[in-house]
């Protein structure tokens, strides 16, 4: 990348290292280009990144150093299926809730940082919602509760 610089009546081209720009962008907390939405979990606002593409789902919350208390990631799938997640390269202690197509919580699991042990839904699900460990307890969320996801399918086209 080059930048034109005007100095004392003459124009000079100055090189700006592209790798610095890439480094700054890659160090940002959220993935660039990923959509966000705000959900209500038992009356608590939760800002979630929407993982829709295969690449977004594969990366998930890997390589993050922190996640704010009222933030998470919602994984959206095209059809109901048994879902399986692990914590490869994820340092933040998380909890995951598996949700059916209507937003009903079918399972809640706590996951260990860096664990390669898969956590699987017990039934067919459409969504998985990862948050900081302890958030669901604070919000009083339990298996059988519902999270309103009505705006998610309409607002976010799947890739």
Task: Give the C-alpha Rg.
Answer: 20 Å
Mean pLDDT: 83
Number of helical elements = 4
Strand % is 35-45%
* The CATH H-level homologous superfamily: Protein of unknown function DUF192
Briefly, what is this?
This protein is α+β, with helices and mostly antiparallel strands. The protein has helices at residues 18-26, 54-59, 135-139, 151-155; strands spanning 2-7, 10-15, 36-41, 44-51, 71-81, 84-85, 94-99, 105-111, 119-120, 125-132.
Index terms:
6-stranded mixed sheet; disordered N terminus; globular; alpha+beta; 159 residues; Jelly Rolls
What does this structure look like?
The chain is α+β, with helices and mostly antiparallel strands and 159 residues long. The chain contains 4 helices and 10 strands; from the N terminus they run ββαββαββββββαα. The protein has a single domain, classed as Sandwich (Jelly Rolls). It has helices at 18-26, 54-59, 135-139, 151-155, and strands at 2-7, 10-15, 36-41, 44-51, 71-81, 84-85, 94-99, 105-111, 119-120, 125-132.
């Amino acid at each position: 990348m080059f930048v034109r610089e005007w100095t004392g009546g003459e124009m000079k081209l100055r090189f700006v290292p592209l790798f610095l720009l890439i480094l700054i962008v890659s160090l940002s907390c959220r993935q660039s280009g990923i959509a966000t939405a705000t959900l209500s979990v038992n009356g608590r606002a939760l800002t979630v990144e929407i993982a829709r593409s295969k690449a977004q789902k594969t990366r998930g919350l890997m390589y993050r150093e922190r996640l704010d208390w009222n933030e998470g990631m919602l994984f959206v799938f095209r059809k109901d299926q048994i879902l399986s997640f692990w914590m490869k390269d994820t340092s933040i202690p998380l909890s995951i809730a598996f949700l059916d197509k209507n937003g009903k919580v079918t399972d809640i699991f706590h996951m260990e940082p860096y664990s390669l042990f898969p956590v699987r839904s017990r039934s067919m699900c459409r969504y998985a919602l990862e948050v900081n460990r302890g958030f669901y307890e604070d919000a009083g969320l339990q298996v059988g509760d519902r999270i309103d996801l009505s705006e998610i399918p309409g607002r976010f086209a799947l890739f």
